[in-house]
Amino acid sequence: MLSKSPFILSFLLLLSLPLLFFLVPRILPPKTLPSIPDPDEMDDLALFRRATLASDGGGGGGAGTGIRRRPPSPPKIAFLFLTDSDLSFAPLWEKFFKGHGRLMNVYVHADPAARLHLPPTPSFRGRFIPAKATQRAAPTLISAARRLLAAALLDDRANAFFALVSQHCIPLHSFRFVYHALLTDAGAPPSSTSGGRLRRRHRSFIEILSSDPILRDRYNARGRNVMLPEVPFERFRLGSQFFILARRHAVLVVRDRRLWKKFRMPCLKSMKDSCYPEEHYFPTLLDMQDPSGCTHYTLTRVNWTGSVGGHPHTYRPPEISGDLIRELRKSNSTYSYLFARKFSPDCLDPLLEIADTIIFRD
Length: 362
Prior knowledge:
There is one protein chain. The chain is of the alpha/beta class. The protein has one domain: Spore Coat Polysaccharide Biosynthesis Protein SpsA, Chain A (Alpha-Beta Complex), CATH 3.90.550. The protein contains 12 helices and 11 strands. Strands 2-1-3-8 form a 4-stranded mixed β-sheet. A 3-stranded mixed β-sheet has the order 4-11-10. Strand 10 (300-302), helix 10 and strand 11 form a beta-alpha-beta unit. The radius of gyration is 24 Å and the shape is globular. The N and C termini lie far apart (95 Å).
């Protein structure tokens, strides 16, 4: 009986190995932050493929997006709202959109885990796209922005610009001012048409920075050298989460697979404070693909003075005034800022009070 003991022990140990492989990952805490679920990734790939084919002239339409295609029309601005809790400023945006329905579209990505109060305003009604859960320090915010771009590309071929804004953003000018600033961009480089004529190609207004004191930490947030070879540190860029993309760049973003396979990787838990994927993916991709087609600055004003926990200064009702709006418009570029964040929901009423006399009076 004793002679059989080593055999029995070895046999039991062999049987226990699969159990250990199953239990250990559930007992020991993971080293990385949550990753994108595979079903979500597969859904997105199918959506992005349809958007790419449609934009390349291969058809596709708006099937499966819940949004109708429209006939050709003048160039439009697609406003892409990324929200996880509310749309408190919908009444202010409604005043901004009023009378300009033929020149704009609205698309909303609302986190399905949030109890969202649906605004009664007509521009937002029915403009919610199929969405997935999002969270900070995760590539899910990149996926949400790409879903919005894909939905807008599929919905209306007249969408020429794609403005990503948050639930805390407000407009700083009238719609007429914003539309004219984007469509008559004097700095856009010329390109030749098939007939040999020169026309200006729309630029994208996206912040692209190549230096920051903690840029190396952000680059290594997923682990040392894991971004190689697709993204060497010298090509890694930083920028604002919110931007305005020209149509060709929106197509480029939803078509991308090469850089996305790096940026979709979850960050290490130990590097959580350096993990802001959405601030790096878009500027890095566009700087690699078409740097001369981007302004390298954003048209959304953010006040980082006194920021807390990675969040910018949040404006409160006592701060709302005409002087604040005029100050927020000022920029170091030839363009005025068009939008601003971050505002608390209770700023709506004081903003509406000065909407006609200050904000939309250019």
